[in-house]
Specification:
CATH architecture of the largest domain: Alpha-Beta Barrel
Helix content: 25-40%
CATH class of the largest domain: Alpha Beta
Mean pLDDT: 95
Number of domains: 2
CATH superfamily of the largest domain: Metal-dependent hydrolases
Largest sheet: 9 strands, mixed
Order of helices and strands: EEEEEEHEHEHHEHEHHHEHEHHEHHEEEE
Bound molecules: zinc ion
Number of helices: 13
CATH topology of the largest domain: TIM Barrel
Number of strands: 17
Radius of gyration: 21 Å
């Protein structure tokens, strides 16, 4: 047999185990061998890793699309996954959010597949009564095992993402339903009562209208910590595994640790910007996001969490908001929140984490692949081993590249990391056995991406 691809002399870095120097054989989209012997089977293409690290590709568990081309949301998958592939992303989980029944996905998922460079699963956001009562049907029909809740979105304030209805009763019942089918509940933890009161006051007083910091200071970290504590209690009560998306504060992390210590099955995800940006960032409005970027104390706390597994996943919360919506010459209150980010997770971890002695490569593999695969049931991904899907990235830890929207491939023509040089990038991204990126060039796929159905089953409680 002639292999499709053979990567020789790689430092194979897997999550949850020590690295090993080996050759990795790939055939028909699967890893077929991880070999430490000198016998090298013939292959159509051989890549000499020269001892550089080979890791499972990044699984980004938190991606939004549909902002650049809202009328054709599928088109954006092409640009945004190219952006991700430059940062080693080989699969992702897309957040779906709608007030409608999710039946429309029957038509949309195949279109996503046509446009995406890499395979993907979806999370469904639950916001209406109809959706809540359809959880079991969605799980069965779409193979979805993870459901997202916005906490406390009772108040239809300007800018609120959810209509009246997602109150604590909804949340508790939702967790119960998700637990029943063996799924995981995701929460956006940001106490809306605290935030909207402060924002109303600040706006009325015309206070800090042109400052990114105003967005941050009006969502104090107590708003995140309190919601996590409450969600943790509901999760414990219902036996529902809990996943806190985009953890942004040291206080929030303390609440995660506290819930875990009380026996809650809880995972926290943070994002690159919460490690690198503060409310005083030069990126200004571009870095407006929910929850907000905060202080260097929060940056440091979250780095500590990544190192000691208080935080288990990295997500990008990618959202390519068009530049005109970022409201650069208006007030901070009206600017759109979110930015393109899928490419940055890995270089931030390598440059600021590994490069500065905060993390080792094995931990990077856990944060970007091992844990997301485990938590979200992507059972044949997240590790380099025979039989696993051949999703890989070869890293050059010495390579320096300066981020620019000129080359980042996103449909949003700006970056919160514009002009920032990171040391440590993928030089090769392999998705399901195919080279999709080599030395910064995006390569065409031979067929559509796969939609990843996930197993759900009734779990004894
Ligand atoms: Zn998000």
């Amino acid at each position: 047999m002639k292999l499709d691809l053979l990567v020789v002399d790689a430092l194979v870095v897997n999550p949850f185990q020590p690295p090993v120097r080996a050759d990795v054989g790939i055939h028909e989209g699967r890893i077929v061998s991880v070999s430490t012997t000198v016998d090298r089977p013939p292959a159509r293409r051989t890549v000499d890793a020269q001892g550089r690290p080979l890791l499972p590709g990044v699984i980004d568990p938190h991606v939004h699309t549909g902002y650049v081309t809202p009328d054709q949301p599928e088109r954006e998958l092409a640009t945004e996954t190219a952006h991700g592939v430059l940062g080693g992303v080989t699969s992702f989980v897309k957040m779906e959010r709608s007030f409608d029944d999710y039946d429309y996905l029957d038509e949309l998922i195949p279109k996503y597949q046509e446009n995406s460079l890499v395979d993907f699963a979806i999370h469904l956001t639950l916001m209406t009564e109809e959706q809540l009562s359809s959880v079991a049907r969605y799980a069965d029909h779409f193979g979805v095992s993870s459901f997202k809740f916005f906490m406390g979105r009772r108040d239809p304030e300007p800018g609120s993402m959810v209509k009246r209805g997602v109150d604590d009763g909804y949340l508790l019942e939702g967790f119960d339903r998700v637990a029943e089918l063996g799924g995981t509940a995701l929460v956006h933890a940001e106490n809306q009562d605290i935030i909207w009161r402060m924002r109303r006051q600040w706006r009325e007083q015309g206070r800090g209208d042109d400052q990114l910091a105003s967005w941050s200071l009006t969502s104090p970290s107590i708003a995140e910590a309190e919601n996590i504590q409450r969600a943790g209690m509901f999760a414990r009560q219902t036996g529902c595994p809990l996943y806190v998306v985009h953890l942004s504060s040291a206080a929030g992390l303390a609440a995660v640790r506290d819930a875990a210590a009380r026996g809650t099955t809880i995972h926290a995800e943070t994002c690159a910007h919460y490690l690198t940006h503060t409310q005083d960032s030069e990126a200004g409005y571009l870095a407006k996001v929910n929850p907000p970027v905060r202080t260097s104390v929060d940056n440091d706390g979250l780095w500590q969490g990544l190192a000691d597994a208080g935080v288990t996943c990295m997500g990008s919360d990618h959202g390519a908001k068009p530049l005109e919506l970022k409201g650069l010459d208006g007030s901070i209150w009206d600017a759109a929140a979110g930015f393109p980010n899928m490419m940055h997770t890995l270089p931030v971890l390598l440059s600021e984490g590994v490069g500065k002695g905060r993390l080792d490569l094995r931990r990077v593999a856990e944060l970007t692949a091992g844990w997301p695969a485990r938590i979200f049931g992507l059972t044949d991904r997240g590790a380099i081993a025979p039989g696993m899907c051949a999703d890989l990235m070869l890293l050059d830890l010495e390579l320096e590249k300066t981020v620019s929207a000129q080359w980042h491939r996103s449909g949003a023509p700006y970056s919160i990391y514009e002009g920032v040089t990171f040391r440590g990038w993928p030089v090769l991204t392999v998705a399901r056995g195919e080279l999709v990126m080599e030395d910064g060039e995006i390569l065409p796929r031979s067929g559509p991406a796969r939609y990843l159905r996930r197993a759900v089953g009734t779990r004894g409680r």
